[in-house]
Design the sequence.
């Protein structure tokens, strides 16, 4: 029996989110577990994170167990034969028998993609959020650092109760000159995120960029944890799960133990 | 009455091609002409070129006539209210009353997008052709210049009869490091193209890149004009109509006459 870590790319448009739900709803996990059964693996996949319906992933880590003899390097091709066109496996590696894609992750990174031009883009629909009005970049650059560090993020999250303290390591703006027009990307990297947190932060930052609220107003959301103080959730189609990182020693098949999540980040395999 | 030149972007996936066909088939022209009727324009749009089902466009020029008083600058927004999400107008300008989007074009440019990585990409499906094996770039670089200049391109075209001589101004390879993996773009610019010519050239070039035929073999296709000598048509989803160019003086509302197509290219408006 091997424990295997794979990275999967998916187009979230046709999925009711990542997590398996009630029968009849098409989910990333459901499709993947179906394919796992076809190659003789245990049909249970554990993901590094959750993504909502319409949210995409460039390299979502999953772990699962494989009793068979198929060489690890052949796993992506084997699974891809049974996976739909909007979900494919990019790489696979054997990891420690007690490796856990969610619990062992040191951090997760997300990007939210905004298209800034006068008219919407057919080729980027479902892939980026179109913003037809100019954004105040200076105000955004003032607001983003307020989110950094350890805070109670409940005020940005959805349907969350209980512990809302999370740590955000990076929150930055990236301008990109896409062929279909100027884009603005909001990049977030943190140990973990509350449900709906990224979309809540982006929706609130959009209000900052459009001059509807001050950068300073983010402080009160973090202090009071009241969802009503934040902006509306940004729509899912602009959001991408980028990657997660694991401690290097947890990525070795022979290692055991729970690992130390405070060690320097080892990026996941992308071969 | 104004003659108006618009540039339109579309995702070709959901269209049975550009040209209006029999009723019930969803086409770019059909959707656009429907929207023209809604804003009081004559419901007849003439495009710079044709694209097949599944082929995309970044800036396809169309002309039409508008009797109403709507300001030219407001035309994109007005049309976009009635256009579907996979077809939008990017810009509009008034041109000479006898301007013709097809006949006046000095050249058209196309790109074919190849994704070169071990596994297919969900986020680029319908947007690029996935090629899982390495391509021989040196062979491609040897083959491309053979296509330049005036030739009979019937051997690459589809269902074409009659005159097959066309002039190709540019044919080049562009490497691009996309976020989803290395891409290779084949760029073609010519006065005009036969039906299916670009996809026929790309399919043949792919055989060159995969070592299935020699670069030299393209010569015989051009000499004999026999479609059976060329490779299969490359699938539509990797192909993009990029832009067309017009003589500067034909883009002015006050100009008349047929223009001189040998004048230096004036790019279409992209604002």
Sequence:
């Amino acid at each position: 029996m091997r424990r295997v870590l794979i990275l999967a790319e998916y187009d979230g448009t046709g999925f009711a989110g990542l997590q398996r739900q009630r029968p009849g709803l098409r989910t990333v996990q459901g499709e993947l577990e179906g394919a796992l059964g076809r190659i003789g693996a245990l049909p249970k996949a554990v993901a590094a994170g959750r993504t909502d319906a319409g949210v995409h992933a460039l390299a979502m880590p999953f772990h699962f167990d494989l009793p068979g003899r198929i060489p690890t390097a052949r796993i992506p091709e084997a699974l891809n034969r049974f996976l739909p066109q909007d979900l494919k496996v990019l790489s696979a590696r054997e990891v420690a028998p007690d490796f856990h894609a969610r619990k062992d992750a040191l951090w997760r990174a997300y990007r939210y993609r905004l298209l800034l031009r006068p008219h919407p883009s057919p080729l980027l629909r479902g892939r980026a959020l179109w913003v037809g009005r100019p954004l105040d970049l200076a105000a955004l650059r003032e607001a983003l650092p307020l989110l950094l560090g350890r805070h109670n993020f409940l005020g940005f999250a959805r349907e969350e109760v209980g512990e809302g303290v999370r740590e955000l390591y990076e929150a930055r703006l990236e301008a990109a000159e896409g062929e279909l027009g100027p884009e603005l990307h909001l990049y977030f990297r943190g140990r973990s995120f509350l449900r709906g947190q990224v979309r809540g932060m982006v929706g609130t930052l959009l209000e900052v960029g459009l001059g509807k609220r001050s950068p300073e107003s983010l402080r009160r959301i973090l202090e009071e944890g009241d969802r009503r103080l934040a902006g509306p959730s940004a729509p899912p189609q602009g959001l991408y799960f980028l990657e997660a990182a694991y401690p290097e020693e947890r990525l070795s098949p022979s290692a055991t133990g729970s690992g130390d999540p405070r060690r320097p980040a080892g990026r996941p395999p992308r071969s």
